[in-house]
Amino acid sequence: MNANPRQLKLMDVVRAQGSASVENLADTLQVTLQTVRRDVQRLAEAGLLTRFHGGVRVPTSTIENIAHQQRENLHAEGKARIAQAIAERIPNGCSLILNIGTTTEAVARSLLQHKGLRVITNNLNVAAILCGNGDCEVIVAGGVVRPRDRGIVGEAAVDFIRQFRVDIAVIGISGIELDGSLRDFDYREVKVAQTIIEHAREVWLAADNSKFNRPAMVELARLDQIDRLFTDAAPPEPFTGLLEDADVSCHIALP
């Protein structure tokens, strides 16, 4: 589904609280109970929220991500702002790695006017987007292609990335937990991302505000392995302190 702004706000409220009653959501959003029930029904059918009697909660799975098409539509405006903020700070004539994720795909779209880039990626969607920039050389990692999102994973991709050392790695993530760990769902994808971090002079994390305190099964890295965080709203507590302790520069792409 393509969630509208009201439905995105509803999901933000539920994520912040963990769960919420229909009545509470109606009061918070200043809409009717009927409107909330209709939105909850659509979001639950899309797998974005889980219903229970009288209310709704966030899905609790730590082993499976939301489908790629659904993630493309979630927080699309925030991801576009993040992507633009990153693109403004990437100089022409540098080397990059972009990994798997809808936010890194948004970054690729924001780089279509850059000159002299050399981009390595394990994301076929990123490669297809950047092929539209004639001043950009795109290098695609080998490995196993996941049909659901066209991400390339596996040991062949890890070995390929090890050949390079780039100026900047721009990575996406599924969740940032309260202990400062960056997490994802597929251990094969994580292995590639860990290698990307090891082979970049700077690591920039692109994560919209919904990623804070979102659980996932596999630890990819910790905040102190990141140089810059780009997000679309001020991080909630305790993440501000965690970012300061890890010496991570936080860039907030406001509307």
How would you sum up this structure in a few lines?
The chain has 255 residues and is of the alpha/beta class. It is 38% helix and 24% strand.
Keywords for this entry:
alpha/beta, 38% helix, 2 domains, Rossmann fold, globular, Arc Repressor Mutant, subunit A, 255 residues, three-stranded antiparallel sheet
Give a verbal description of the structure:
The chain is α/β, with parallel strands linked by helices and 255 residues long. It folds into 2 domains: 5-60, Winged helix-like DNA-binding domain superfamily/Winged helix DNA-binding domain (Arc Repressor Mutant, subunit A); 69-252, Translation initiation factor eif-2b, domain 2 (Rossmann fold, 3-Layer(aba) Sandwich), CATH 3.40.50. 38% of the residues lie in helices and 24% in strands. The protein contains 10 helices and 15 strands. The protein has helices at 5-17, 22-29, 33-45, 68-73, 76-89, 102-110, 124-130, 155-161, 187-198, 239-245, and strands at 19-21, 50-52, 55-57, 95-98, 117-121, 136-140, 144-146, 151-153, 166-171, 175-176, 181-184, 200-206, 218-222, 228-231, 249-252. The strands form 4 sheets. A 7-stranded parallel β-sheet has the order 6-5-4-9-12-14-15, with helices on both faces. Strand 5 (117-121), helix 7 and strand 6 form a beta-alpha-beta unit. Helix 2 (22-29) crosses helix 3 (33-45) and helix 5 (76-89) crosses helix 6. The chain starts with a helix and ends with a strand.
